[in-house]
Design brief:
Arc Repressor Mutant, subunit A; 12 helices; 2 domains; mainly alpha; about 60% helix; Tetracycline Repressor, domain 2; about 250 residues
Length: about 250
Amino acid sequence: MTKHGDPDRILALLWRHSGKGDGRPVPGRKPKLTVDDVVAAAVALADAEGLAAVSMNRVATALGVGTMTLYTYAPSKADLVDLMVDALLVEKALPGPGEARPVGWRAQVRLYADVTVAQYRAHPWLRHVSVVRPPVGPGMLADSEYVLSTVSGLGLVAAETNAAAESITAFVLATAALEADAAELERTTAQTNDSWWHDRDRLWQDYFDPARYPTMNAVWHAGGFDSSTHEAMVRSHAFGLARLLDGIELGRVY
């Protein structure tokens, strides 16, 4: 990944629709492209071939412009990726302040989880993007605002409210990354994950020793592994999220 450019420049680009600057490269005659055009082309390329395929040259070629022209819209690939990620976060369109939302904080959290996992599965390259230094744009803030709002009425102090929101976000993003990994592997190998495991059935016949793995053997014979890989992933996500919310609901964590 290339380094980011000027922080003020990328902030202006991320917030180009805020009314405080539209992110145009230069004033004067209207350019043939917009930042939105560049971002859309980059997202389409990443969806089709993965994030590694996204380069300034490839995106410029897709748009029919010179590579140097593209740098007037996005100063670097790292900045372009920030724009791509925040654009997708904006697309999540989670309910904002005063907008209709599911009844009950748990249902609101599940909405966030479902939308996030679905987006990672649709755009598997998202799992390769750092969440430690996210794009500080409107999409990221809207995401954070929504998750905080789901737990803000639980009677926790401010630090606990933030910790609860961050715990939810961490769990959901980890699950979403697993879903994205599964989707990306199926795309790049043209083989389902169930088929991959089926090809390795001899593991259980030739190498698995019930005496060495008694717990796994017991769970297996009790039907614990009967689901497809996708069904098991969905079930684990639902179970883990529910238990996390149970813990948050118990009250203060410090």
